[in-house]
Design a protein that fits this description.
The protein has 4 helices and 15 strands. The protein is mainly beta. It is globular, with a radius of gyration of 19 Å. It folds into 2 domains: about 35 residues, no CATH class; about 210 residues, Alpha-Beta Complex (hypothetical protein yedk fold), CATH 3.90.1680. The strands form 3 sheets. Strands 5, 6, 7, 8, 11, 12, 13 and 14 form an 8-stranded mixed beta sheet that branches. A 5-stranded antiparallel beta sheet has the order 4-3-9-10-15, with no helix packed on it. It has a two-stranded antiparallel ribbon with strand order 1-2.
Length: about 280
């Protein structure tokens, strides 16, 4: 049967010749690798390389390793060049608790969680985010939520506003420009050949007043005094953990419009974070 003849209330199909496609149906987010697929219906069908991110899909980390070591209380930090446009499937730094030493450690993992039970690592491309409201219930996340929680250091993150044919990015940071941490989860997956891949996801919450005019979701930003509780595997009460994942106070954040160069995941230049003028500011 021709797809145009199907009786459905779903939105019209938009096919795009990109390697990755993202499809949101109701509250669920799906992705696909490969050529355009007419079975992917959508309100937003885009690619990882040129996209309006569905939740939290890009962030910034410019702080030096020494600064991160002090803030997150790790003995050995991982130094990298400043990152102005960190994108899904790339390697990112996380802070987690070493269960053997009970000390915090910084590690490099792949952004896009691959559950330990997964048959195919490509599942990670559609698990870059987890919703705070259901993270403790979803099969892909609930085991990590119990004992493999982490911090994802950041200096800022991007969200996109749809303006006519343009997806306008905005950069959101702390008013004092201090690095902070997203609530995250990590997992370890072993391939049939024995190769191990560690990966993570970033948890999201409903947007605060600062972001709501741009997007209805934002990453879950933890308060520094809550880092210890979040990382402690002995904390098993989901209600105690869910209470930490609330919209971050909007008065402590600022947002600016930035160049659409950010829309390309392959672009990672310092001008990504430079403010631009697009008329009357929302902030």
């Amino acid at each position: 049967m021709n797809i145009s003849e199907r009786k459905t209330s779903r939105p019209k199909i938009r096919l795009m010749p990109f390697r990755f496609q993202v499809c949101k149906i109701g509250e669920e987010l799906f992705t696909k690798e490969g050529p355009p697929n007419p079975n992917f219906f959508e309100c937003e069908l885009v690619s990882l390389n040129e996209r309006c991110c569905p939740m939290c899909g890009r962030f910034v980390l410019m702080a030096l390793g020494k600064t991160l070591a002090e803030i997150f209380e790790v003995k050995e930090a991982i130094d990298e060049q400043p990152r102005y446009n960190v994108a899904p499937t790339q390697n990112v730094r996380i802070v987690r608790l070493n269960h053997q030493t009970a000390h915090r450690e910084m590690s490099m993992v792949k952004w896009g969680l691959i559950p330990s039970w997964a048959k195919d690592p490509s599942i990670g491309t559609r698990l870059i985010n987890a919703r705070s409201e259901t993270v403790h219930q979803k099969p892909a996340f609930r085991a990590s939520f119990k004992s493999r929680r982490c911090l994802v250091p950041s200096d800022g993150f991007y969200e996109w506003e749809k303006k006519a044919k343009v997806k306008q990015p905005y950069l959101f940071r702390m008013v004092d420009d201090r690095p902070f941490a997203f609530a995250g989860l990590w997992d370890r997956w072993q391939a049939p050949d024995g190769k191990v891949t560690e990966s993570c996801t970033i948890i999201t919450t409903p947007a605060n007043e600062r972001l709501i005019s741009i997007h209805d979701r934002m990453p879950a930003i933890l308060k520094p005094e809550d880092y210890g509780i979040w990382l402690d595997p002995a904390v098993k009460n989901p209600n105690a953990l869910l209470e930490l994942m609330i919209p971050f106070p909007s008065e402590l954040m600022t947002g600016i419009p930035v160049s659409t160069k950010v829309n390309r995941a392959s672009y990672d230049g310092p001008d990504c974070i430079e403010p631009i003028v697009i008329g009357e500011s929302l902030f």
